[in-house]
Amino acid sequence: MNSAVGRAWLAFGYAFLYIPIATLIAFSFNASKMVTLWGGFSLHWYRELLNDTEVINGFVTSLKIALMTASASIVLGTLAAFALVRYRQFFGRTVFIAHINAPLVVPEVITGLSLLLFYVACERLFGLFSHRGIVTIWIGHTSICTCYAAVVVQSRLLAMDKSLEEAAMNLGCRPFQVFVLVTLPQIVQSLVSAWLLTFTISLDDVVTSSFLNGPGVSTLPMVIFARARLGLNPTVNAVATLSVAVVSIGVLTGSLWMARNERRRAEEQAAAYREGMVALQGRIPDARA
Amino acid sequence: MGASKPRLPSARGRHFVIGVPYLFLVLFFSLPFLVVLRISVSDAIGVRFQDLLTWDDGALTLRLKFTDYLFLATDPVYIVTYLRSIGYAALNTVICLAIGYPFAYFMARSPATWRPALLMLVSLPFWTSYLLRVYAWKGLLDDNGIVNNLLLWLHLIDSPIKMMHTALSMMVGMVYTYLPFMILPVYANLVKMDVRLLEAAADLGSKPLRTFWLVTVPLSMPGIIAGSMLVLIPSIGEYVIPELLGGPSTLMIGQVLWDEFFKNIDWSMASAVAVSMVVLILIPLAVFNHYQTRGVGRGGVA
Q1: What is the DSSP letter of B238?
Q2: Beta bridge partners of B48
Q3: Class in CATH terms, B75-301
Q4: ipTM higher than 0.90?
């Protein structure tokens, strides 16, 4: 295929992906109250945001839920990934796999509805979950995010070299020591990716939270959704700009950190290999012959 | 863990690793769905749902109520909404494939040094709020929106075009949201493709376009199918996009469920809609599984 056509296609594709975000950012600095007419540069909507308790409270709630969700999801997701990769046969494995995959394809309206009706049933039967709010939303987000975390960690575990763990076990490490000293350092990057992914999924969720929230509890996406439904609102643009800024910095720092880790590991491996070769050559003087 | 033989993964550890996530997902994912299933077929007085099985004077009675399902199956409004949801989801998949496949192809054929950056630029929007990205189109496609203002300013139109709250605005939002889900799996497949096969085809006298259709496209089928599923299935149950960008003519099944629950406060009906949505989603999944297993078999022979 023609390279000029290719470049044009890519350019249009990226323009399509980024122009909406760019306009969102540009119009957050608009002095005019009309969201789509340029009236000069201003930080008016950011000042407005500082006094917007609804947005600030929503953000704090969302942040709490996202931190709790990401942390719970990587623990459960890592366990699930180990169960899938390391235990090839156990009772109900097929059903387990279905449980890992199902939340990825079931629409959020269904997850939200079913969990809420489950909470209501629990309340009637056992008096549980009668207070709905951060905890009930957290459980809902975790049941979705565990599966994403499991998929991310699983792909790393599948690619991992098992011989290091076996060597550690042969040298007398206990399973838990093997996990902490050998396995964990090798999968830590995937754990960071999984944590960040589940954190953003939780931070972004509006549908499940709307079903599972209680009186007076609104997450930031719920606040934004309510405003966006009514029409265009410049404070939403300001929120968007701030979140894009935070995300860009986060993703950039994260990928630089990962690239540095990757390089360091490669260097360490190369150094270990060199030393090994030197030691080998020292022992067998005519190895080169 | 430490009490048993040290060098073998202990049974207790194994039970813990499998049991904890299993129990959590059964408790907070499947069990709630069974509650939905139950509510969709049980009689209710107010919002208090009656027992399905009752023991009364030595007679065990099982009462199942299918009126909601009957209503769903016979009311044209629901049937049309179901068909519309599938239709828009299918259209979304086709458009994403038409834009995303060439995009992934050109990405995979670009210089190797560019690829990480190109890939990162596709996945970066994933990290920003999808709600905000959908909202962005409201500002662009509104009657007084940026696109209309631009067209007016260029004197291409005399009065604003109605784009917002139509099928057009909803489809733009859908394609925009789901395009990366198509690009990424197709790219992952194309970038791994053995270029020697294409060279062989060229050496044997095949023209580039012919090679593309007869070699590249069939080899990238797993990527196409995976991407199509990632677009098709979530877009059937989409709620946020039709709600923010669509109009009365684009009512989707996810919105029906939401309205039955939040506006009509009809839990039983909402549950029946949820169950039938799951059935609706299982159909393409079954087809996908069928093709996937067939694809694996074919790959094994090759």
Answers
A1: -
A2: B45
A3: mainly alpha
A4: no
Please tell me if residue A110 touches chain B, with a CB cutoff of 8 Å. Answer: yes
| Dihedral angle of Cα A147, A151, A156, A158, to the nearest 10 degrees | 110
Instruction: Report residue A130 as tokens.
Output: 């009668």
Chain B, nearest residue to A108 by Cα: B237
Q: Could you say which of B31, B176, B244 has the minimum Cβ distance to residue A229?
A: B244
CB atoms A204 and B131 under 8 Å: yes
The CATH superfamily of A53-231 is: MetI-like (1.10.3720.10)
Domain layout of chain A by residue ranges: 53-231
Residue of B nearest to A96 (CA): B22
Assign B135 to helix, strand or coil.
helix
Backbone torsions φ then ψ of B54, nearest 5 degrees: -125, 145
Residue of B37, B119, B138 best to disrupt the A interface, most CBs of A under 10 A: B138
**Binding-face residues of A in 3-62 toward B, CB within 8 A:** 6-7, 9-10, 13-14, 16-21, 23-24, 27, 34-37
Determine the residue of chain A that is closest to B153 in CA distance. A37
Give the separation between CA B63 and CA B229, rounded to whole angstroms. Answer: 38
pLDDT tens for residues B266-279?
Answer: 888 899 999 999 98
Q: What tens digit of pLDDT does each residue of A29-43 get? A: 888 777 667 778 888
> How near does any CA of chain A get to the CA of B57, in Å?
24
A58-81 in b/e burial notation, b at 16+ Cβ within 10 A? bbebbeebbebbbebbbbbbbbbb
Task: Give pLDDT, residue B7.
Answer: 42
What is residue B39's predicted lDDT score, i.e. its pLDDT?
87
